[in-house]
Amino acid sequence: MAEGAGALSRQDVEDFLFREAALLDDGRLDDWLALFTDDARYRLPIALDDDELEPALVDDDRERLAERVFRLTSTTAHAQVPPSQTVHDVHNVRLEQLPGGELLVRCHLTVHEVRVGGPEQVGLGRHRILPGRAEYVLRPGPPVRIRSKTVHLLHRELPLPNIAFIV
Amino acid sequence: MDLAAHELVREDDGTFLVHTRAYTDPGVFELEMRRIFESSWVYVAHESQIPEPGDYVTTSAGGQPLIVSRAEDGRVHVLLNRCRHRGSVVCRMERGHSHHFRCPYHSWVYRNDGTLVGVAQQSGYPVADRQALGLVPAAAVGVYRGLVFASIEAPRITLEERLRDVAPYIDLWVERSPTGEIRTTTHAHKLHYEGNWKLQMENGNDGYHGNYVHESFMQVVSRAGETSVDDVKRVRNTGSVVGLPHGDGFIDRPEGGMAGQFDYHDPRHAEYHRALSERYGDGRAAQILGQRNLLVFPNLYLFESHLRVIQPTAVDSTVVVMQPILLGGVPDAFNVERMRSNERFFGPAGFGSPDDVEMFLTCAAGLRARSVEWVVLHRGLARERAVEDRVVGGHTTDEAPQRSAYRAWRSLMSTETVDG
Lengths: 167, 420
Fold this sequence. Notes:
The complex is a heterodimer.
Chain A: H1 10-25, H2 29-33, E1 36-45, E2 56-61, H3 62-74, E3 85-97, E4 103-114, E5 127-139, E6 145-153
Parallel strand pairs in A: 1-6
Antiparallel strand pairs in A: 1-2, 3-4, 4-5, 5-6
Chain B: E1 9-12, E2 15-19, H1 21-24, H2 26-37, E3 42-46, E4 55-61, E5 64-70, E6 76-80, E7 95-97, E8 100-102, E9 109-111, E10 116-118, H3 129-132, E11 140-144, E12 147-151, H4 159-163, H5 167-174, E13 182-184, E14 189-193, H6 197-203, H7 210-213, H8 215-223, H9 229-236, E15 240-243, E16 249-252, H10 270-280, H11 282-288, E17 294-296, E18 300-302, E19 306-314, E20 317-327, H12 332-345, H13 353-366, E21 374-376, E22 385-387, E23 390-392, H14 400-413
Antiparallel strand pairs in B: 1-2, 2-21, 3-12, 4-5, 4-7, 5-6, 8-9, 9-10, 11-12, 13-20, 14-20, 15-16, 15-23, 16-17, 17-18, 18-19, 19-20, 22-23
Helix pairs in contact in B: 10-11
């Protein structure tokens, strides 16, 4: 990739993505939201093409994303009582320089989820694994900001249990 | 006490009770599949999913795999997805285009109307087998305004008779399109929960739970400045609930508008309002825009933004397909906004559906307390009134639609003879 003041190495990008994952896993969702630009999009599509007439699991603009965070941090969302504990693993990171200075990052994302509960409960006490292929468009900054995050979940076309946490 | 299936719904002395076993007993589930999902009309597909000859979708009814295809004759065929030879499914794709289905096992080939047209090395079979061994069709298939219904075994009544009371409300749902054209999106929100299918059946037209289960969503809407939590609660307490014959029923909020969802009444949509009025007249246009979460018993819900199909897979396992619908006769931007609004509440990652699904899980867990025999469904029983063939609830939070569904359930479950 191009050398220069704004150029990010793969290690820089990985450090950034690992920090993002840690914010999600630590439940620091307001700090996580602050990583996104004002014109950001956060998407979990079902269709592989970009047809806006098709439903997505998630198709958030910045405002909708703020609502998502608000719902999780400031309301009683029954689907998160008890809350999901997650581990976000980031791997297979590849970089591509975009015209205009932005960076396209493709990586794999595996989210592990557990909600604590005894065997008499239904839907709790399980380990769920949600793998996906992620694409980020990053503004190199500083500070680095996410202009879009799109995760194509491997299970996107299957009947899914709740995804009430953030992937 | 070992109750027969139809005794699991008990109505007397101002009470209305459903037995725990109705939700948890595999034997009851097996009977439901045979008596309700295989021997009465169920929804199987929307015509817009198979517009051209050769188009097909696969689905299931009562756990039986089905192909819904449009054949060269232009007709919709509903076929059991099972090779007549050794039982393999002949199609494994969710949707596609094919004029033939070839069994992967021994290469028997069927036309998309079910006719057996090819048998590999057929000299080993009597000639007559060809005609006798087509894919087995559903005993009855019917289409009403794009909704394809079928009954695998012969139904007791015609589709026309079955839909007589609910058809006017299906019409209103279709007429949200100024051209009366509804088409489905290709993809859908699909949910799976570990619980009985009737938990979803009871929930979609339940006006009671919203203020509690969806308080989180109301706070989101309130934060956005669209409306206050108090206002949403007030609207949720307007209107009524209606139970129709055959188990159908709906929440009836004539002023319409589920808070935080696409606002059809917004003056921005003046052109849409004009188109509706021109096509249907002012009075009917207003009626069209009322909110009705309509259950067509047992497995179809018509919501404004999507149709919802309940697919029971086991007594404690259910798939729900929330199939978004696009309106004909409106600009794409109108439908795009509807889709984004649909996602705000619905689907596995929406701000509403997951909280409903969580209640199905909490119920599935709680119903394991089988020492408590009955579920209580008589809210508003004393204040509901019969108007001709229907039951009108006294309050929008009353359980009149649920009772109508369970009365139909009891009636079908008490059918004396079961084939097979």
